[in-house]
Each structure stands twice: as C-alpha cells, then as structure tokens.
Amino acid sequence: MAAPAPHRTETLREYHWSAERHGWITELCEEAAVAAPEIRSLSHYSNGILDFVVCRAERAPLSSLVTEADDDLHDESLPGSRLLLCAQDLGAVLRPLGTGDLMRIVVANGRGGLWGGRVKPGEYLAALADGPDRVPAMDDAMNRLVTRIRTEVHRLPDELPGGDPDTKPRLVSTDTENAALRVDFGTAAAPVPAYEQRLRSLWHHHVNTTDLQYAGYYRDWTLVCVGDVFDAPELGPRFMDVSVRSRRTSYRDLSRGLRGHVVRLTDALHLVAQAPPGQAPVDRLVLDVQEGAVYVAWLSPREFVVGVTLDQTQVARAEARLHGLAHALGEITAQSPR
Description:
Largest sheet: 12 strands, antiparallel
CATH superfamily of the largest domain: Dynein light chain 2a, cytoplasmic
Number of helices: 8
Strand content: 15-25%
Number of domains: 2
CATH class of the largest domain: Alpha Beta
Number of strands: 12
Order of helices and strands: EHEEHEEEHHEHEEHHEEEH
C-alpha cells in the first residue's frame, strides 16, 4: 500500500519579505508545518511586524469575527497577534519574579488552542490549532521549531521551551519533602477538618522539590488552598534574588490578577476555538519562562489550580503533575462542602 501523500501547505508573505532576510527561517517554518498537520497555521514576526504565514492549504474558515474578504494573511495571523500582545503584558507581570523572560505561552480549550513564543528579543512565532486533539502536537512542533531557528540560524543556545523530555527526575527523600511542605487554607475553604485533611493529603502527594514546587487552588477567584516546598534546603539557591516570602506573595497576587488577562486570552482563543457549552472558555494556560513555568488548569468555569516549577528541564513533567492534581481535586470537590 502506498504511503499517504503529505498534506499541502501554502506560504503567504508580506510585501517586505525578502529571501535574504527571511528565506532560511521561512523554509524551517514550512518544514515544521508539513511535518505537523496539527498546525493550522503559523506566523512569524520581526519587531512587532508580521513577515509571513505558513498555512494548511485545506482549512475551514475561521470565525466570522476574524474573516476579512480575500485576506487570508490577516485572518490567519490575527489570533496569534492578539496572543502575543497578551504575552507581552504577562511577561511584564512575571519579570519581577526573577525567573527570566516569558518565552512561550500556550492557551487552549476543548476545541483548539494557540501557541506563542519568543525566538529571541524582537523575533516571535505564533501558531493555531483548530481541533481538540491537535494542541499537544502543535506545542511540541513549535517548541522544536523555535529551537531550530535559535540554534541553526542564530547560533544561540537552546532555551528548552517545554522542558527537556530526556531529563530524569532527581530522587529526593519523601520525609525531606514532607518536612518542607507548607500548606495554607484561604477564605474559600470550608472549615471542615476532614475536607482540609483531604486537600492537605493531595498536596503531599503532588507537590515536590523535583518538578511541581507550588500549587494553589481557587474558587470564584478566591483562594481555597495553597502549598509549596520553597523552604526545602535544595531549593535555597533559587531564592538568592527574590525571597521565599516575596515569591509566595507574588504568585498569590498573580493568581488573583489573572482575571483581566484571561478575558483577553479568551477573546484571542475564541477566534479559533469556541469552548463547548458549559465548559470553561479556557482550560489550559502555560507561561513558560527561562527558569521554569507557571500553569493554570481549570476544573470548571468557577474553579482553577495554579502551578509553578522553578526547573526549566522539568516543565513538561510539572504540568502533567499539576493536571493530575486538578483531576484529583475535581473528584473530591464534587462531594465537598461549599
């Protein structure tokens, strides 16, 4: 049996595009789009200006909120442009934490997602996925593409967007982790000892010094439970510039201040993927900085959990652990007092 023919792509260029400046990068983007059919389109920007878009040749129209007659370049680039504007604002919010620049952002729901990333200062990529199962493959492909452009074109080091899948977790004593774990309850937590103990047990099971080092659970934008292992001795070098106390305060402030950013992210995402009825408009948000990442996973339209890793190599593993915590929270909160 003959192998299936590769899907076709097309490249839409802005008037200022030139082979000398953009040709090599365009070729790498075209290769990535051909290899990953989950990518609906990807866009390249220099100093805030769109350079080109690589698209699947066969694609359904986007939302009428996007479409302009006979302007595919505008249609396909608009969601990513809006995402990158949101990323610029979120990067400014994250910078005082001392964990480096925001270099990757992913926002998704049950019907698709957006990816945005920094190749280097002034050079950015954005990508769209228009199906429920296409976001992980788009994410992986775009992370590899950024790395190729950095290392092959610009001769810059790999910043490990998305983490390092080949890194093995360090083995740490469970007793040491439990001793370092601090769990606090917020005003949205029901004052029922059995419920608090179940939450505390979940944090002991999921939060650790290797990957997921902080997690906070919120209902109606009010804190229910938060815990971290920031006091662990092996994490001490992570807090030379920003103290543990300041970091804890900053992550709580970030969580409470996300609402306005989420509204704008939702507007960008809904140009590509409207959430299914009854579900949160966004169910996954990743803010990948140079030294770790911040994640938000929604359990429902009213509830979400925020997670943090301070280890760039463990970014993917920490996100998986946070989603495990979110799933477990969903099971116990269904029967919990409100």
